[in-house]
Structure formats: C-alpha cells, structure tokens
Amino acid sequence: MFEQEIEVHGHLIDSMILTRIFDTIMDLNGEFTVLDFKIGKAKDEFSYARLIVKADSQEKLDSILEEVYREGASPVKIEEVMLERAEKDMTMPDDFYSTTNNRTYIYHNNRWIEVEDIMMDKCIVYDPNSDRAYCKPIRDVKMGDLIVVGEKGVKVVPPERPREGVDVFQFMSSSASSERPTIHIIRKIAKDMYNIKKKGGKIAIVAGPAAVHTGVSDAFAKLIRKGYVYCLMAGNALAVHDIEYALFGTSLGMNVNDGTLAVRGHRNHMRAINEVFKAGSIENLVKQGKLTKGIMYECIKNNVPFLLAASLRDDGPIPDVITDIVEAQKRHRELLKGVDMVLMISTMLHSIAVGNMLNANVKVVVVDINQAMVTKLLDRGTWQAIGIVSDVGAFLPILVDSIEKIENELD
Amino acid sequence: MFEQEIEVHGHLIDSMILTRIFDTIMDLNGEFTVLDFKIGKAKDEFSYARLIVKADSQEKLDSILEEVYREGASPVKIEEVMLERAEKDMTMPDDFYSTTNNRTYIYHNNRWIEVEDIMMDKCIVYDPNSDRAYCKPIRDVKMGDLIVVGEKGVKVVPPERPREGVDVFQFMSSSASSERPTIHIIRKIAKDMYNIKKKGGKIAIVAGPAAVHTGVSDAFAKLIRKGYVYCLMAGNALAVHDIEYALFGTSLGMNVNDGTLAVRGHRNHMRAINEVFKAGSIENLVKQGKLTKGIMYECIKNNVPFLLAASLRDDGPIPDVITDIVEAQKRHRELLKGVDMVLMISTMLHSIAVGNMLNANVKVVVVDINQAMVTKLLDRGTWQAIGIVSDVGAFLPILVDSIEKIENELD
Amino acid sequence: MFEQEIEVHGHLIDSMILTRIFDTIMDLNGEFTVLDFKIGKAKDEFSYARLIVKADSQEKLDSILEEVYREGASPVKIEEVMLERAEKDMTMPDDFYSTTNNRTYIYHNNRWIEVEDIMMDKCIVYDPNSDRAYCKPIRDVKMGDLIVVGEKGVKVVPPERPREGVDVFQFMSSSASSERPTIHIIRKIAKDMYNIKKKGGKIAIVAGPAAVHTGVSDAFAKLIRKGYVYCLMAGNALAVHDIEYALFGTSLGMNVNDGTLAVRGHRNHMRAINEVFKAGSIENLVKQGKLTKGIMYECIKNNVPFLLAASLRDDGPIPDVITDIVEAQKRHRELLKGVDMVLMISTMLHSIAVGNMLNANVKVVVVDINQAMVTKLLDRGTWQAIGIVSDVGAFLPILVDSIEKIENELD
Amino acid sequence: MFEQEIEVHGHLIDSMILTRIFDTIMDLNGEFTVLDFKIGKAKDEFSYARLIVKADSQEKLDSILEEVYREGASPVKIEEVMLERAEKDMTMPDDFYSTTNNRTYIYHNNRWIEVEDIMMDKCIVYDPNSDRAYCKPIRDVKMGDLIVVGEKGVKVVPPERPREGVDVFQFMSSSASSERPTIHIIRKIAKDMYNIKKKGGKIAIVAGPAAVHTGVSDAFAKLIRKGYVYCLMAGNALAVHDIEYALFGTSLGMNVNDGTLAVRGHRNHMRAINEVFKAGSIENLVKQGKLTKGIMYECIKNNVPFLLAASLRDDGPIPDVITDIVEAQKRHRELLKGVDMVLMISTMLHSIAVGNMLNANVKVVVVDINQAMVTKLLDRGTWQAIGIVSDVGAFLPILVDSIEKIENELD
Predict the structure, then answer these.
(1) Which chain A positions have a beta carbon within 8 Å of B185's beta carbon?
(2) Do A213 and B181 touch (CB under 8 A)?
(3) Which CATH number is D1-77 given?
(4) Cβ contact, residue pair D184, C94, below 8 Å
(5) CATH topology for B177-410?
(6) What is the residue-averaged pLDDT of chain C?
(7) What is the ipTM of this complex?
C-alpha cells in the first residue's frame, strides 16, 4: 500500500469539506484512516482533521491526492512549489498545475504566497521580480514565464459556507457523476438491475404512454419477459396505447413501423378501448387470442402484476383501470412493499404518487425528456435517486441492450 | 382512378380550411381538381369551393374523404346518416363514427340535426324519441343506443378564426407530422440528406460540444467521412472537446469508454488546448501525427471546411478559432452560400447566428434536448424547418444508421 | 378611404400566402375587396389574386402595403426602385429598405434584378457597374453605395411549400403575436374576460397548487369575489394548500408572509387535511367559522361551484374530493357545458382532462412556467388558444390588476 | 437559555447527517456545543456525536429538536412514546406525529419497535394486540386506533449513503430553501444587495435582451440610477434593443406600451443600429441629445462601466461592441476583479463566460425562465449561488420594489 498523511482545517462539517474528501478517496478506490479529529465546539470554531490516505499504486495515490488537495486538504509536510519556464508565448509546460476557482496559495522560498486573480482552469505564474503569483489564461502566457507544475506546494482553501441562518444561497457541491455521459449512467443502472434480480430483489416500473408512442414497446416487453419487472404501475393511457399498437400497429393512428397515417387511424385509439370493453378485460383479450404481444400481454403471460390507476384525462377508461383513487392508492401501497428499485419513466403523476409511497432506502431512477420534470421529481426528498434527461425512446433500448451484454458476460 | 365530388363553405382562406383540405389530400397521396371557387370579397363574406378528389383505390379515396370531411368538407350529394344499435352497455359498434371537437351535424330523415355536447373522440348517439343527437363517452353507452357508424351523413364545421384584429388567441392548426415518433422523422431526414448528396447538394452542420460529450463523436466523424458534410460550423468548445477525446480518451476529464474519472483528468481539457497551441493549429496536430481521429481530424483529412467562431465563454481559445466576430460572420456568410440544408445540433448561439444568414429556401433541422431551445429556434421565421426534442447522443447514431440502410438499399 | 390595388401569384392556398396577406391587412385594421381570384386547378398549378387594400389614412395604408409586399404581393402597377447613396462607410440612408430572407427582386431600368445573397434584416445595394444587386450587412456598406430606400420597386417571393407528401418539414408561418411582451398579452386576456363577463358568459378556471404556493392566492380569491369565475376545477392539492395557508399561514410548512419555517410546520399540510376530515367537508369548515379566507372560502361564499378530482398522488384525499374518476369526469362534462373561456393555470393533468372535454369554439389560456408543458397543451388541437410561459405568481396579480383598471375605465 | 442534550450515531460525515443537523439548528436560530465526537477511523466504521442544543425559548428549542430528530438525532435520555386514541374514523388526534420516509422506531414499554410500511406524511398506529407499529394514511385510521402524538420516543434512522465507489445514485439532501416562494427569495436578494452597497461592495449585472423585451427596462434603468450596479456585462442585442426602445418606443418593431405593431416597425431594430453607426458610439448618441433614457443611457450618465461583447449572432454589431473575443475576455476579467455579487439575467452565453471568471467566494444569482438553463448554470461548480426560474419581466420589478422598501425602512 502506498500512503500519504494529509490534514485539513476549517468548517469541515458545515461546509461539507470532509464529506467531499471522504467521497473523493472512495470514488477513486482509495482507503483512509482518520488519525485525529477535533471538532469545532460552536458554530464559529474551526475543525481539524488529520488522516492517512492509502492506495494500491503510487499513480492512484497521486491521483487521489491531487483531487483532495483541490478540496482543501494539504500534506502534513509542506514542500516547495515547482516552477518551470514557458518555452514560447501562449504555451504552458506539459505538467502545468490547473487552477480551481478557490482561494489558492503557493509555497515558495519557505512562505505561502496567495495567487492573485484566481479563476478556474488557468495556470499560475510566479513573478520573481515582485515575488507575487498570478492566475493567467493561456493566451497571456509569455515565453520565459515561471509556471507552477505538478501538485506540490499548492494549497487550496474552499469557501466557508455562509452561516447567517437567513441565507438563500445554496452551497453547491460539485457532483462528478452528474457530468457522466448518459450511456454510462444507463450501464450502471443495468448493472444494478442485474444485481438486484440476481439477489431476488424487486424492481417496479412506473411508466407513461411515451413508452409506447416512441416506438420502444418491444424493448419494454422484453424487459418484462426477461424477468426484470416485479410489477408495473401505469395509467389508462399506457395500456390503451400498448393495445392499439398490438392490435392495429398504430399509435394515435400512425403506423409505428413507417410513420404513415393509417386509414381511419384516428379511430384506432377508441377502437382499442372498445375492444377491451367488448372482451371485458385485458386478460380476456389475451385469452381470446386477440392480444398477442406488447407490454400488457407480457405482464399477463408472465404473471407480472400491474396496476392501472385512473386519472381525469382518461379516454374510456378501460375496465381494468381502478377508477376509485383511494382504492388505487391502497393497492399501490400493498404492491410496493419491499421493492428495491423503481424506474419512473416519462410520467409525472404516477411517479410522484409512487415516490410518496416509498421509504428512503429504495433506489429511484427518473427518466424524462423534460429537465424541469426530472428536477421536480428529484427535489422531493427521495434519498437515492438518479435523474436522466432523455427520450424514453433512447433510454429503454440502451438499457435492455446493456442488461443483455451484462448477462452474456456474467451468467 | 376513383373519385368523389366534395364542397366546402366558410372562411376558407382565413381559417385555413382549404389549405388543410389540400394538405390532407396530398399527404395521403391523392389528387384533386378544383371545379369551382368563389372567394369572399370582403373579410366577413364566405368563400365556397367545389373539387373532385381522386385516388388510385377506393380504400385510399375513402380514407382521404374521411379526413377532409373532418376538416369541414362534405360530399356534394347528401346521404342519410347510418345508425347501428349498441349490443351491450359500454360498447360501441365496430364501425362507430369517432367525433372531432368541432360543431357537428348528422343528416337524418332529410334534415340536419346538430350533435349536442360535442367533444373529441367520442361517439354520436341518436335518440329517436326526442329526435336529437348527443355526443357520448363510451362508458355512457347503453345497450340498444342508436350509434352513428361509418362516415356518411355527418358534417363538421370547423370554427371560424376570430377576426377582431386585436385578438391574441392563436388559431391552432393540427399538425399531424408533429406527432410522429422521432425515429421516423430521423429516417425522413436521412432520406432527404441522401437525396441532397446524390444531387450534389450541400449540407452544413452547426454543432455544439454535446456532440462529443454524449459519446457520439464516432457517428459524427463517420458522417463527415461518408461525404455528407459540406462544411462544419462550431465554436472552440466542440473542437477542444473533440481533441481532448481523441488525444486522451476523455471528455472533461472522464473516460468516455467507461465513465470513470481519469487520473488528473480535470487537466485534460486545458492540456488539449495547450497541445494545439504547441502545434500552432489543428492541421499541424494532424500533420505531426498526434491527432489521428475524431471530428476535426476527419474534416482535415476529407477537406471539409470548418469555421470555429469565438465566443466569450471560450477556454483558450485555440489558434484555429476566429476571434474577431465581424470576420467570423463574413466567413460564415461566404461558406453558407448555396447550402441546401443545415443541421443545427445542440447549440443555441451558433444556430441562431447561422439561421440569420440563411435564405428562406434552405431546409433546417434543429436538434436539442431542451424543448424551449427548439421552440425558440423554430420561432424565428425560418421557413422549412423541423424541430426534434432529443438527446444528440440518440439522434446522431440513429441518423447515421438510417443513412447507411438507405445507401445499402438504393446504391 | 385610401386604397391601392395589389396582386399576387403562386401557391396561394398551399403556402398560405393569401391567408397571411388577409391576416396582415386585418391585423393592421385595414379593409380589402377581392377583385379577382383564379385558383390552381391541380396541386402544381399557380393561383392568382388581385385585391384592393383600403385604410383610413395614407400612413396606415403604406404600413399595410409594406407588410403585404413582404408576404409576396406587389402593386399591380410596377414602379422603379429608389436608390440613395450611403453618406459614409457602415451607414445606411435613414429610409433604407430592410430585407426579408425570401427571394427578392428590384425593378430597375425597366427590368427585374434578383438580389443576390439574400438574408434577413440587411440592406440592398445596387451595383451600376455590373448591373447587379446584393444584400449587404451594415458593416459592409461603403460610402457612395447605392442603397435601396422606401418600398417601391421591390418584389418578394415567399418559398413554395414542399408538396411531396412525405415531407416532415413544417412550413413555418411567422406569428407576430407570439412575440408580444407577456404583459400585453395578459392585458388582452383581461379585456376578453371583462367582455365575456359583461355579456353574461362563463369563464372556468383549472388550477394547480402553485397558485397558492407562489403566494398569490389573494389575487385568485379576489378574481372569484369579483365574479369572474364561473366554476373552479382543481385537485386535492389546491384545496389542501389553500386551507393550510388560510388556517396556519403556511404553505408546505413555510410562513408565506416571510418565507421562514414555521414551528412543526411540516405537519401543517397533514393538519389541514385532518381539520377537513374533522369537519366533514370544506363547507362545514366555513360554517364552523374556522375557514375564513382563501380560494375555497370564496367559492363557498360566492356560490361558485368547484370540482376537486382525485389523483393518485393525493394526500388524504379530503372528503370533498371526488375519488371515483368516472364520476368526476361526468360532473366535469356537465359543469363545462356552455363555457366561453377556460384559464388553465399550472396544472398539466387537469388541463389536459378539461381540454379534452371542450368544443373547438372555447377560448383557452394556458399558463405554465414550463415551455414544454405549454407546447404540449397547445399541441392538442384546441383551436383558439394562447400559451403564456410564466410564473403563476407573476401572471395572476397582473391579470387581476389589469381587470381592475379596465373596470375603472369602462364601468 | 433552554437546552437539550442529544446524540447521533452512524456515517455522520459520509451521509452528511451531522451537516444537516448543524444546518437545521442554525437555520432555526439555535446554538449548539459539541460535547463529544468520535469519528469512524475507516470508511465502514460509524461515527458518534453528542451535543447540546440551545435556544432562547422552549418553543423554539422544541421546534429545533423536532427537526433534528427527523434527521436522525435522539435525546440522550430515552422517553416512552405517547399514544392517543383516534376519536373517529379517518381522523387523527391534533398533535399526531407526522412521519418521514426514513426507517423509524417508537420506544414503547421499554423497547424499540420498528414502524412497518414507513412512508412520508402519514401517522403511526400502535397495535397493542400484536405489539407492532404501523405507518397509516389518514383514510385508514379507525376510531379507537392508538396514534403516536408529540415527538417523544420516536427515533428516525436516515439511510446510509451507498459507498461502493461506482454508484451513480445521488444522495439527495433536502434543501428547504429551494421550496421558498420566489417572492421571498427575491426579498432576501434585495436585502443582500442593499447590504453589499452599504458596505461599498460591488454588484455586477450580466443581462440578455429579454430585460428590454419583457418591458422592464425602466426597472433596470432605476437599478442603475440608484447605484446598485457596479458594472454591466451584455451583448450587442441588449444595447440595440434598449436603444430601439428608447428611440422609437418599440422592441423588435412592437410598441412596448400597447403591444401593437408600429408602422414599418420591423425596420426599427436596424434603424437603431444605423443611428449608433451614424453617431459613432452610444456615448455620442447621448451627447447629441438623441438617446435620453434607458439602460445604456443610465450607464453613461452614471459612469457605470459597461462591456458589450460580440457574438456570432449579432446584427451590426454596433461600434461599442468589442468584436475581438480575446480582447473582450481580457476586459471582462479586469472589470470583474473584486466583485461581491453577480446577477445573471436571462443570458446563457454571457453568464457562463462571466461565471468562469469568478472566484468561489462571489455570490451568484441566476434568473431564467428556463429550468434547464438555471440547472446548467448552477451545475458549473460555482459555490454560493441561487437559481430562480422566473420571467425577468416579473423578477426585476419585484427586486427594485423590494430594494426601495428596504431603503425606506432602513435608511
């Protein structure tokens, strides 16, 4: 094990500095041991922590240290900053130190010099004539400038959180994962779903009609067939769209395969509803051999329980829909007991409803094309959640693909 | 040829009734000949049109007629409405007439009866006792109700556009195509791009950095390699992200392949910029064998001209960026002469700029994850445009796939 | 009356050219008489119209003509274009002709010259040496350039709508009203509401809980008290929020007056629900003297009928809420008969539901902070609608203020 | 002083439990002293804290305790839970304990009983027959049910943050302030601006043209006149819109006062640009007595420095605009030195640019109608920021009003 002793001062709890340092070490697969911790007794007193950071290679350790130094930690033993001359105008040495937007000091000739004009993503130039240090954009770099390289001898001081009680300013914590490309996040979710299924856990899906209208009901049906769906919660619209597509190949009258308008297609939505009324239920429609594919079909064939809760905008609603809301809530609460994860796909109403029924240990995945919807759902105090701003038409096929790849690798 | 004579009265020009009827016939691959047209001389006078609708099969003709009747046209020869009894409660006959939300009449016993309580997507019940007709939701249908079936003897009267001069209410025209699943729209665009390329036309792409960050720069590069891109317009960020990815495999410090954070990865963005400054230009970076893939690489290898226009938020900006905006505008106008289509992908600033430089005959495709951006770009008076609310990470691979399929079929 | 004879050729119906010309004349309070109209018999034949435009002042006529010329019309009698020299570099004559992005010709020396490089919002420079005309940005204007001034001798040709049947490109029509500042649109709506009330018409309001949470329930209550609300449609949440605010001064536990957290305030939401259950209904709560202000209070005091329809996410729901959706739909349809206008305020679910129950002659106002919601609601084929992307907290007070000003002026 | 000793176990740092407890105490104006703190040495070891919470009234102390107990703390001395019978069906005792969605225990008969089926905002029913406790919705409460009241004897266990290193799930921390009505947030900002000005601090404004187009340039101008704006950063469009409005009373050709279209108004945008070119600069236009009001006028009259940075979409751009971006960046960095607060109003481009130039101690206020824009700007790692999703047309007048009220009170 490679290790380094570091320390950090400040409002470590308040300003979440220690939380972020712990996070960083663990995110980068390092270990830590706390050697010393003194907590500020009152709100205006500083705290102090000293810890050993460990990693299984020097390279990994360096990478961890670099990050935690940016969060305000520093090595217990202070070293001199390293400087290297710029070889030409507008060019930095390869190993240049890249700045944060936090207050920054360099340790030069045995004393700390504050870097002036600090900004994000620039370099630091030390001026020996004035004995001052400046943050400079690349286009201002002149040949011969002494530029800070490596990570030694640089100290960063994150801002203290304003503690006035009435402050409306949010204290932003950088959230590395929020910047990940959607495709990687989906893969992680696929992995998690695979593991939950493996352990016999329960995954519920709450979905809106966009899951059919965007042309991905095949992917959705496959997810059910493969056993990843413990139960389905939806409204009348999802079922009607799914049945319209299964019976007539259209969604709101448009041929899903080629996007053309079907003959008298605008009636298909109501025809699908009429067919369910004629049969008496979706299950009867399957039994009569009329409904032979799709999301609802797979639920019935695979004994996946589904709940269709009515809402005021329903056409019909079809007989399977629970039209009394108090009854619908009761049955939702019953069915959601013990679920480990809920996928909420393109439905505001049912997602909020289900979210309110979950305890804080359930993992929640929110997928919607609309940023405001995702923000609103994540703002509700759910604890372990991830929001994906994406078309469900893109999300579901990638999710199912990813699951199949993981199965091929691991099963 | 199968044909039918129809007529229509009203504010045909004002309320766009005739435009929609022509549209509908042509959308459904029919033909028409105008037999008679009398225009209202002043704004409060009605117009009248009589035309023959033709199609190459009776089924197609029926489907066209059904739609134009919903737009307000009616057959010159009036026929009696057809009625059929409901076989049980909450069930309509299979061939039920599905209502619009426009004023509607049925022709029964040689006179027109207005349908009461008209609403969208319901059925019409004729009550012989009162000699009245009602619009009814399916759950209100009783066994034995006389329900209108087929399309004969039903007349629809679209609302007149309010002509008060000061009215803020927009007159909505239903736009069937806006409801098509994204995937079909992308296929149509692919077809159009294929045809433009075939005819020697020019397709310009305006793109923001999301095209790299979402992990689809390979699809983008392929589009260039295949010869579909006449020129590329972008900013510093697209180029820097692309070069960061090509040189280090990261985007803003994250490994694009697996979504993990690279060691000292947060420097990669600035390192990429530094590399271009060291080489002097992107072209030099390619010549030195350092840049060997990606969007910018393909542009240089395939002699696709690119313009990188500076903006205030640029890091660097790298030497290839035109930092004087007046000069940049001049070169954009020069390069855009004669383009047939522009794809605007996830960039507000450059899309608006390019949009302002286009004449009204250029086709424009706007792709953005954010509905408000798409709305804003389409609101600018551009003429032939299509907006797609989608993740560029989903759009580009599907577009390139679709193009390849078309090539395989048609080349 | 001042008048001018104009004519226009092209796909006047298809490309909506004539619709836009009629619109423009009426929007600018002019009159017109159609002198001649020949319609293209088949889809690829041109139409032709000749009309007289009239206005009550020369200035108004000029302004109308200027606009209709930009839409493709031209005076029957052709006049020479007027040219004026630029007095210095980068400066246009005051009366410069400002270009559209449509194909444009100038009539010079008895022949039409096409303007090259046409773009929006530039000027036209005629070069006597080459006898050609160019569209130029202001920074390219040189001293002495011959610049087109006034509106004479300029002809604009709008693009023809692509008529291939399979085209996904929308044909955009510029919508002047969409660019009006929100405040003016709200004033127009206030005027319309005033007129509807005056005539004994009916205005329904559909509203979500944001109407309380944004602190504007006083404005809402005033609107009811003043008699502008024929009926209120909402969900459990609006009523509960309103009652929480009226009983405890909080909304979700926060003091609405000063934004501080109330003591044990997080319970207030559930306490409000408990109070209604204890009383048995909202009306009982008013009768018992416990509920003395707010939206629900005003409804009861002023005999304004309200419908609270349940949805799956409801807390409670309180006894007044109709928990069976089929019953709720029935009562909504009943209550909505004969309404003239519906205000849909910050609620997706109830707005779609109500929208589906309206006939096409009802005016609809959609207010939401979220552009995507507004777009979605307007996309549903409702006919006379206006969408306002705004905070309800800003909309309602301005609306009530505007109504009061109109009352003071006109009553 | 009233006080209470409390303790808390768990991953206090990792899961931010202690941060939230400190926050809660300070948000509610309490005090605390840490008596003991033992940190978990490694990532899987628990931490432990014991502290005294103090407040200046028993009521305030109770309110603080109630909140911190919901965050996982508990009194050092355990007390029995209090139970009260429901007086009728569907009714809770007034003092009912309102649940969180975290794991919850009640202390009854000297032992902890876990509450089953825990959900947010319900009550807890103890069943003496089975000696079990259940979380129940109000409609399930039966007369005689034993319901937990008050806050004693209830223990909440927040979920532990998943520490697997690869997890994409965000750990949500409830953010009370994000739920405050906009109007209160604006008042807090007004207070902050007042204080900054009082102390001689610097407030910069970055604004887009919506500030003129929404009809609130008068409020903006007043803010400058009152001395609250240290410097203005904008683009060509803000200046041109402002000058168009000042010279012609229009914004993009529409009369701002009444929303009607001005005669030949579409030229006004370009005419305004032409006027500045004729004068040579905005300052000259003021000196010549042509520009007599508005945002730019006030800047010049009050010696408030402004920077107009070019962007590719500019019409003109007018002479005052810095067309070279590298030069513009340099001057922005210079002018932003030492600012205390930046208001970013309805401009993505300039806001990101300015945000990148700030150090982490600057307060940032982001105002935009578009949630996605606000989210994107706040996601950039700025530290003390508040995002407001609102129309600038609503924001600016309320802000200026609030400032004036504060001045009247405090000056």
Answers:
(1) 259
(2) yes
(3) 3.30.70.2690
(4) no
(5) Rossmann fold (3.40.50)
(6) 89
(7) 0.83
Instruction: Specify the residue for token string 């737009």.
Output: B71
Stretch among A287-301, B99-113, C30-44, C268-282 having the lowest mean pLDDT: C30-44
D43 to chain A: nearest residue by CA? A32
In the CATH scheme, what is the code of domain B1-76? 3.30.70.2690
Q: What residues are paired with A88 via a beta bridge? A: none
Check CB contact under 8 Å for D359 and A13. no
Taking only the tens place, the pLDDT of each residue in A14-34 is 778 888 888 888 878 888 899
Are A383 and D159 in contact (CB < 8 Å)?
Answer: yes
Three-class SS string for chain B? Answer: CEEEEEEEEECCCCCCHHHHHHHHHHHCCCEEEEEEEECCCCCCCCEEEEEEEEECCHHHHHHHHHHHHHCCCEECCCCCCEEEECCCCCCCCCCECCCCCCEEEEEECCEEEEEECCCCCCEEEEECCCCEEEEECHHHCCCCCEEEECCCCEEEECCCCCCCCCCCCEECCCCHHHHCCHHHHHHHHHHHHHHHHHCCCCEEEEECCHHHHCCCHHHHHHHHHCCCCCEEEEEHHHHHHHHHHHHHCEECCEECCCCCECCCHHHHHHHHHHHHHHHCCHHHHHHCCCCCCCHHHHHHHCCCCEEEECCCCCCCCCCCCECEHHHHHHHHHHHHCCCCEEEEECCHHHHHHHHHCCCCCCEEEEEECCHHHHHHHHCCCCCEEEEEECCHHHHHHHHHHHHHHHHHHHC
pLDDT value at position A177? 35
CATH 3.40.50.300 holds for A180-410: no
Task: Chain B: give the shortest CA distance to residue D271, in Å.
Answer: 17
Does B6 have pLDDT greater than 80? yes
Helices (H), A85-144: none
Residues in chain D, overall count = 411
* Smallest Cα distance from C36 to chain B, Å: 9
Lowest-confidence segment of A223-232, B127-136, B359-368 by average pLDDT = B359-368
User: Which residue bears the tokens 């390869």?
Assistant: A94
The topology (CATH level 3) of C78-161 is: 2.40.420
- Which residue among A312, A350, A372 places its CB closest to the CB of C328? A312
Give the CA count within 13 Å in the CB-facing half-sphere of D332.
32
Q: Which two tokens stand for residue A89?
A: 């105008």
Structural domain boundaries in chain D: 1-77, 78-160, 178-410
| Multiple choice CATH, B78-160, 2.40.420.10, 3.30.310.10, 2.30.30.240, 3.40.30.10 | 2.40.420.10
CATH value of A78-158 in 3.10.450.50, 3.30.160.340, 3.40.50.1010, 2.40.420.10: 2.40.420.10
pTM assigned to the model: 0.85
C168–B159 CB contact, under 8 Å: no
Question: Under an 8 A CB cutoff, do A385 and D100 touch?
Answer: no
Pick among A88, A177, A184 to test the B interface (most B CBs inside 10 A): A184
Summarize pLDDT for A285-318 with one digit per residue, the tens.
999 999 999 999 999 999 999 999 999 999 999 9
- The answer to whether C215 contacts D27, with C-beta atoms less than 8 Å apart, is no
Residues C274 and C288 sit within 8 Å (Cβ to Cβ): no
Partner residue opposite A329 with nearest CB, options C312, C325, C369: C312
Does domain D178-410 fall under CATH 3.40.50.10690? My reply is: yes
Contact yes or no for D309 and B312 at CB 8 A: yes
pLDDT digits (tens, 9 = 90+) for D130-166: 999 999 999 999 999 999 999 899 999 887 765 554 4
Mutation target for D interface from A164, A383, A386, A399: give the one with most D CBs within 10 A: A383
pLDDT of res. C46:
87
